[in-house]
């Protein structure tokens, strides 16, 4: 267990021996709808430090039917220019986005402001019918400076991004799915199971191939195709590549042999019937 001795105040960490390839991190400030404060940011940094050394799939969710209602407005109200230049929230969201293994955001209820930006940093987003996701920052006299101003355009395109960022549009679950901001909608009681099923599908892949593919996917366009070729060179030498390809060939050969045996048996039966 990676977090057996941890004592977080704003996060709940779930690990299990039967799912050693992942952790489940729950935002846990239900009294303020999981608003992201400095302590939560600090604790998320602690989680990232562990996952950077010991890569695991991470499922992120909220508690009490809410993912995260945004940054803690009481703290945000007191922040000044120096705080903005420190990139308090943007720094942790970038770190989460750059984790070696995929991050799945399981979104229920509100995912607004900083909560939405945290979701944008994930590799996968799934939601419930009650999801409300968007960035109302301009209504508070600030901008969405922790990733939405550039990630959102990549995720949903410029027109929808401007609706959200400049006109304060908040998307419901069906709208979010229609613009591919989320990929699945599940009842609240099934959300975590769906997240684990997605993690199961990721877990079937070779972990090193997943890690390298994620890194190459997020590389700047000018790095391609050289980075693809270098990454493939690493994977071509991995033992997993030889083992998995040999298993594929063996399975394919066994399937062909079984089909040939079945045809031979059928031909024999037909020949005997004609005699």
UniProtKB/TrEMBL annotation:
It comes from the Bacteria. The lineage of its organism: Bacteria, Bacillati, Actinomycetota, Actinomycetes, Micrococcales. This is Enoyl-CoA hydratase/isomerase family protein. PANTHER family: ENOYL-COA HYDRATASE, MITOCHONDRIAL, ENOYL-COA HYDRATASE-RELATED. Gene3D superfamilies: 2-enoyl-CoA Hydratase, Chain A, domain 1. InterPro entries: ClpP/crotonase-like_dom_sf, Enoyl-CoA_hydra/iso. It comes from Arthrobacter hankyongi.
